[in-house]
Amino acid sequence: MGSRCVNQKHGIYYSNFICYKTIMINQFLHLIFNSVFPNHCLLCNKKSNTGKDMCDRCWIDLPWLLSCCYQCAKPLSIAHNEPLYCGDCLKDPPPYDATIAPFLYQREIISVITKMKFYDNLSATRFFAELITEKIIAQATFNEFPELLIPVPLHPKRLRQRGYNQATLIAKHVSKLTQIPTNYKLCKRIRYTTAQSKTSADFRRANMVKAFELKQPIQARHVAIIDDVMTTGATVGSLSHLLKDNGVEKISIWCAARV
Question: Which uninterrupted H or E stretch holds 13?
Fold first, then answer.
């Protein structure tokens, strides 16, 4: 009935089979609901007939991330059916172990993420959660399911400015689809950092040093960090270092898009 990942240290186990079955049931119920109350496309605002917040015409133009490094999701030009690692991860592995992202941060996805982060289009968080979950299913052969989801926290100042954390909202939708619990109070952002999109790669890494702190003890062996966009990996890398320093053995990154 599928593999089990067993945490001998904490006596915690999570069944891939049960999680997979839960996802499939939730997707079926979602299709029934959308047949009665159709979604609207996040790009053109027309009624969607795909069962998601994207019409079939706009769906075709989305920049899908089809081939990428197993560890960091950096795009690769080589098609592959098994996990493949980029040169950077082979030479200097990041502190996280695997990354899943359905999209490249290009064209239409930039538009959707901008609406989500700055124009209160929160249906995009559901859309990204559904596509992240579908990619998790597609790669289930290579991955065990984590015991806990942790959204990348915003600094309290930025959270007040925006009014919501898009990573937390994505994580809540993924949690509902998979039944993997989310803890959005476990970690806190303690440094108010410059917006990462406006800085160089070296500055981003320096910008994120000791940017987070742990507010509660963590018992999970394997966690998934949830974010919207992964650029250099500096943000999730900093959070991963903190979690591994506090006993987490395996970290997966689940994000909407990869630069």
Answer: strand 12-15
Q: Is 136 helix (H, G, I), strand (E, B) or coil?
A: helix
Lowest mean pLDDT among 61-75, 100-114, 120-134, 182-196: 182-196
Q: Which residue has the tokens 């979604």?
A: 39
Lookup: tokens for 155:
């600094």
- The amino acid present at 83, given as its one-letter code, is P
Location of structure tokens 């490249």: 104
Considering the entire predicted model, what is its pTM?
0.85
Determine the residue type at 150.
I
Residue 29: other Cβ atoms inside 10 A: 10
Residue closest to 146 by CA, chosen among 231, 65, 82, 218: 218
Identify whether the C-beta of residue 231 lies closer than 8 Å to the C-beta of residue 84.
no
Residue with token string 């609901």: 33
Domains of the chain with CATH codes? 64-196+203-258 (3.40.50)
